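[stage:ingest] chain + small molecule (guanosine-5'-diphosphate)
[stage:ingest] validated
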Amino acid sequence: MVLSNKKNHPSALHEKPGISPPEIISPIAVENIKKIRKVQPSSQELVGGILAGNITALSRAITLVESTNSNHLAKANEVINACLPHANKSVRIGVTGVPGVGKSTFIEAFGKYLTSLGKKVAVLAVDPSSTISHGSILGDKTRMEELVKDENAFIRPSASGETLGGVARKTRETITLCEAAGFDTIIIETVGVGQSETAVHSMVDFFLLLKISGAGDELQGIKRGIMEMADAIVINKADGDNIRKANLAKLEFNRALHLFPAKKSGWIPTTATCSAITHEGISDVWKTIEQFLELTKENNYFFEKRKEQNQYWMLETINEQLKLNFYNHPQIHQLLDSTKKAVQNDETSPFAAAKLLLEKYFKF
Ligand SMILES: Nc1nc2c(ncn2[C@@H]2O[C@H](COP(=O)(O)OP(=O)(O)O)[C@@H](O)[C@H]2O)c(=O)[nH]1
Ligand SMILES: [Mg+2]
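[stage:predict] done
[stage:export] C-alpha cells:
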C-alpha cells in the first residue's frame, strides 16, 4: 500500500522536466581561454608592458627571473637588458634587524608615508630561509595589509632558492625590472640572520638597521660587521612604556657608532627612535635618507658605489654559475659521494681530493 502510494504521489523533490538551462561555460570559450594562457607574451611585449608600468607584465617578468628553466632565463635576460637603460633612477634602501624587531610593520608604515608623498614604492625581500619555513612570506603579507592595497606600491615576497647567491641574484634583477616599471623607491627587507645582510648591503644605497631597546645591554650580541654597514640605526617600538628605554638605547648606539672609522661615503651614521605602530619618527627616517642622498650625490659616492656594485654582481654571478655548473655536472655528482667518504675515512686528504675533482671537471 505504501509503495503504490509513492507511485501516485511523487516526492516533493521531484522536478518536472522543463526547458534545459544553457551551459554556463561554453566549451568554445574554455578552449579559447586555454589557448590564450598557452601563448606567453614575447620579451618585447613584456618590456613594453613594464615600461608602461603594467604590473602584470612586471610580475610575469619576475617569474621568469625566478624560474629554473633555461628558456625562461634566456628570455628574462633579454627583458632585463632591454630594461637596463630605463632602470637606475631610484633610491634603494635595505632594512635589516633580527626577526620580530618590526621590519615588516616598519616597511608598511614607511611605505605608506612614501606613497603619500607621491612616490612609487617596491618592496622586495631577501630571505634564503623562506624555502624551508615559508613563515616570513605569510608574515609579511599580513603585516603589510595597507601597503598591499596601495596602487603605488608593489610587494614581492622573497624569491625561493637553495643558495643565498641565487636568491640575491634574483633580487638584484628584480630591482632592475621594478625601476624600469617606474618604481622610484625600492625597499629590500632582509631576515637579519646569516649572511643575507651582506648581500643586501651590496645592492642598496642606504642601509638601515632596526633595533629594539633591551635591558641596557644594547650592544651585546650585535654583530660588529652589521653595525659597520649601517647608515642609520633606528630603535623601533618607541611607544608606550618603551619610549624612555628607546631613547637610552639610542644614546648608547650613538656612542658606539662614534668608535667606528669614518665611512668612505663621508656620511656620519645617525641614530633615531620610531614607532611603526604610532608612526612617530617615521617621516624623520625619510628626512635622514634625503640628507644622505644629497651628500653622496654631491660628492659622487652614490654613483661610484653603484658602479662598484655592478662589478661585484658580475663577479658574484660568475662565482655562482661556476659553482652550480661544477656541482650539477653528472660525473662530478657521481664522484662526489665516494670522494667525500674517502676524505671522511682519511683515505685521502681533503686538498688532494678537491684537486683531483677539479682536474677531472676541467677535462670533461
Ligand atoms: N609596540 C610596537 N610593536 C611593534 C612595532 N613594530 C612592530 N611591532 C610588533 O612586533 C611584532 C613583529 O613585527 P614584524 O613587523 O613582523 O617584525 P619582523 O620580523 O622584523 O618583520 C608584531 O607583533 C608587531 O605588531 C612598534 O613600533 N611598536
Ligand atoms: Mg618580516
